[in-house]
Write a structure and sequence with these properties.
alpha+beta
Length: about 200
């Protein structure tokens, strides 16, 4: 009897651990326009990416950015140490998407698991940004250049937004996209390296 009771307790413990480990896995997504660092890793364009090459949709971290959220220097990985390769600036040599500042641009998320959503926000680096150093809040404009509210609605599997990258910014920059989940304490983060030209 004692052995059977022990087996039941062990079984319940395993079930609880499984539930806890998957509790935050209800929503996943990443940006592929402009192409994000995790997408470049997943499609093999960039090598030596570690675990993110198999799960580009999993860059999940605490929400509340910029007042809260991941620590400076860990923004591209959402504060998730498993994906620290995304925070490595690689000497400023990440592949970059060519965009024209001041013109309408398409931003697209691929959601492998959908979830009630607060909003999607997009931040652009400022004139102090150094692409050879890990991204910090001081490198970004304090306000997003585009915010799309969802008010708790669940988005489609493919989410497309139109927005205008601020004029007057040129050269190598970075866009930080943040998908804030409404009913958990987390958000998803994606960094897209871009090369801006003037319109």
């Amino acid at each position: 009897m004692r052995g059977r009771t022990g087996a039941v307790i062990v079984g319940l413990g395993v079930a609880c651990v499984s539930l806890l480990s998957t509790g935050s896995a209800g929503a996943h997504g990443y940006t592929d326009a402009p192409t994000s660092r995790q997408q470049f890793c997943a499609n093999g364009t960039v090598r030596d990416c570690g675990e993110i090459q198999w799960e580009p949709q999993s860059v999940e971290g605490p929400k509340g950015f910029p007042g809260g959220g991941p620590a400076d220097g860990t923004l591209c990985a959402g504060g998730n140490g498993r994906f620290a390769e995304l925070d490595d600036p690689r000497g400023g040599q990440w592949p970059a998407t060519d965009l024209t500042a001041g013109r309408s641009t398409t931003f697209r998320w691929r959601l492998t698991a959908r979830h009630a959503t607060t909003d999607f926000s997009y931040y652009l680096t400022n004139d102090h940004y150094d692409p050879t150093r890990p991204l910090t809040r001081a490198d970004l404009d304090p306000q997003p250049f585009l915010t799309v509210p969802y008010d708790g609605r669940t988005p489609d599997a493919t989410v497309t937004h139109q927005g205008t990258v601020p004029a007057g910014r040129t050269g190598r920059q970075l866009i930080l996209a943040v998908w804030t989940i409404a009913d958990t304490g987390n958000a998803f983060y994606a960094c897209s390296d871009v090369r801006l030209s003037s319109s």
